[in-house]
Amino acid sequence: MSVDPESYDADLLWEEFHGVVNMTSEELRAQLLADAAGEDATFPPETDLGLDELGRGVLHVLTKRKTDLTKDDLDTMRQVVDLVETLDNRTDDEARRLQLSVGHDPLRAT
CA-to-CA distance for 74 and 19, rounded, in angstroms? Predict the structure, then answer.
């Protein structure tokens, strides 16, 4: 079910989201798969391959047009923007890994 973009200020959120997500979908997918593989490079049997839920949501949003966004998509986008703003481009290992898992590489941020 699509939502009315006007009711959620989707235009602004779309711009913010695409401003903080500075990795391609291919780069994000590779990052999520590497994180899911962990030390032993095996995947769990679940269909989501153990991928970060928010990261999967970002991948999903990246495949959509603005007019096709759902409320869940907008919630995902808001979470990503808030997370990146909260971490403020920190580059310590833990913060960078967290940001990479949602498509933001703080080392690329200007």
Answer: 15
Distance CA 101, CA 80 (A): 10
Euclidean distance between CA atoms 62 and 64, whole angstroms:
6
Please report the sign of the dihedral spanned by the C-alpha atoms of residue 49, residue 51, residue 57, residue 61: negative
pTM of the model: 0.80
Tell me the pLDDT tens digit for each residue of 34-85.
Answer: 887 765 444 444 444 444 799 999 999 999 999 999 999 999 999 999 999 9
Cβ atoms of 66 and 14 within 8 Å: the answer is yes
> Angle at which helices 71-87 and 10-20 pack, to 10 degrees?
50
